[in-house]
Amino acid sequence: MGTETGTDARETTDMTRNTQQKRRERPTDHTDRTDRAGDIDGPVRNGTTPTASDAAPPRATVLDLDGVGKSYGNETALSDLSLAVAEGEILALLGPSGCGKTTTLRLLAGLEAPNAGQLRLRGETIADADRADSRPPEDRDVGLVFQDFALFPHLTVAENVAFGLSDLDADERDSRVAELLDLVDLAGYGDRYPDECSGGQAQRVALARSLAPEPDVLLLDEPLSNLDVGLRVSMREEVHRILIEAGVTAIWVTHDQEEALSIADRVGIMHDGRLHQIGSPERVFERPATRFVASFLGQAGFLSARVEGDRLATDIGPIDCDVVEIGSEANDGTGSGDIEDGIALDVLVRPDDLRVTPVTGGQAHGRIVRRQYRGPSFIYRVETTGGDVLHCLHNHTESFDVGEAVGVELVAGHSLAWYPHESEDEESGSDGGGDGDDPRATRSASEPDPLQ
Fold first, then answer.
1. Domain-by-domain residue ranges, the chain?
2. What's the CATH class of domain 12-141+215-285?
3. End-to-end CA distance of the chain, in Å?
């Protein structure tokens, strides 16, 4: 009788754990993806106070960062970072090397202490720059998946997964390990050692080990960077499935744009230690808040324009002012109707917004300087007569030659964002970014930071 009671208790414990885990809600659509100041798709400005129109988080806030900063000597790695992460949300932090995204993870994990601001987990302060009693890493209920997986080579797969379950008795531990190996599609692999696993299998073992203690937040630091390119796509879908089924709140750090946009509920774009924009993948891509965000996401080009009445004069012909985005966050709320006549702008255009057209007796808009073959499509790089560098997307059956004089047609079926015009001197001082093809595709180092 006592044995049956003990078994029932263990089963009840397991069922309760599974039920609690499955009850963690996930966003059902992008409209629910908010941080504490609503779905911020404009510049995240230091000291900005949410307006009355900003929506409150529809789900409980699990993680809250308030004015967090980190410096190493005179080098600032992170500056005034404020954001909130909701229950069951997957937030991707995206940016180039050195932007501060890994520093953010290390602060959350307790591997570093902040020089400014506070970090709160489920309303409790876990780190405060003004206090010396930050919660140690082992007491934060935060899981961490490392780039190199960090599996123990002398332990089996099952023993690796069970490593953080010392508080459970043997039966509960075995049950939890079996549950997780099934979740990551590795049932039957428990007796293998890490060196007997493929890269994808090792990655899933590391994920299962981090999920085993049921952390409040799971941190993933470039989790797919050590995998072959061909394996990354399938594994990101697999890891995404596991995170959804586990219902865990996750922060996924990556420099891979496609990875971030495909797996995240919200994406935060970081650069030079600052958060430039945060919002749903669609919004940050389609309505970039700053010139850096615009240049970093996708293969961006900037078409120089000058306002002439109700039109924009450009190297590819006149464009109606109505085409540029009205009320765009990229323009700090300045709509096209408020643009002064004669002002110079740079209009964001991506390859699918433009098409190359043959010139048959008419005036050419520019010349093809590069042709990039991508299997099902070509991307043509066109240098216009005025020096703009644009990219045009074409089906692989439509072929133009490098050096050919061509026209360029705007075919975008959506409004376009614009930014203050950059002079050639400003461009020459650019700090890099984008895809490296477009000298206009970055914010100049001499241009005032739009976050200031």
1. 12-141+215-285, 290-428
2. alpha beta
3. 70
260-281 in b/e form (b: 16+ CB < 10 A) is bbebbbbbbbbbbbbbbbbbbb
Res 134: pLDDT: 87
Please name every residue paired with 269 in a beta bridge, in sequence order, or none if there are none: 94, 277
Residue type, 223: P
Please tell me the distance from the alpha carbon of residue 332 to that of residue 114, in angstroms, as a whole number. 31
Please tell me the distance from the alpha carbon of residue 165 to that of residue 274, in angstroms, as a whole number: 37
In the numeric block, which tokens belong to residue 235?
Answer: 């594994």
**Tokens at residue 247, please?**
């219902």
Q: Which residue has the higher pLDDT, 14 or 383?
A: 383
Per-residue H/E/C for 428-441: HCECCCCCCCCCCC
Contact assessment for residue 80 and residue 274, using Cβ atoms and an 8 Å cutoff: yes
- Cβ atoms of 15 and 265 within 8 Å: the answer is no
Phi-psi region of 214 (alpha: psi -120 to 50; beta: other; left: phi over 0): left
Alpha helices for 184-330 (secondary structure H): 199-211, 229-246, 257-263, 281-286, 291-296
pLDDT digits (tens, 9 = 90+) for 194-226: 999 998 899 899 999 999 999 999 999 988 887
Q: Which residues contact 179 (CB under 8 A, 6 or more apart)?
A: 14, 18
Closest Cα to residue 94, out of 278, 302, 248?
278
Beta-strand relationship, 61-72 and 116-121: antiparallel
Kindly tell me the sign of the dihedral angle through the C-alpha atoms of 41, 43, 44, 48: negative
**Average pLDDT of the residues in 50-77:** 75
> What is the CATH number that goes with domain 290-428?
2.40.50.140
Q: Look at residues 165, 160, 235 and name the one whose alpha carbon lies nearest to residue 198.
A: 235
pLDDT higher than 70, residue 43: no
What Å distances lie between residue 211 and 19, 141, 163, 229, 249, CA to CA? 15, 11, 11, 25, 11
Residues belonging to the chain? 452
Q: Which long-range contacts (CB under 8 A, 24 or more apart) does 196-199 make?
A: 197/157, 199/226, 199/227, 199/228, 199/231
Residues 252-302 pLDDT 10s:
999 999 999 999 999 999 999 999 999 999 999 989 999 999 999 988 999
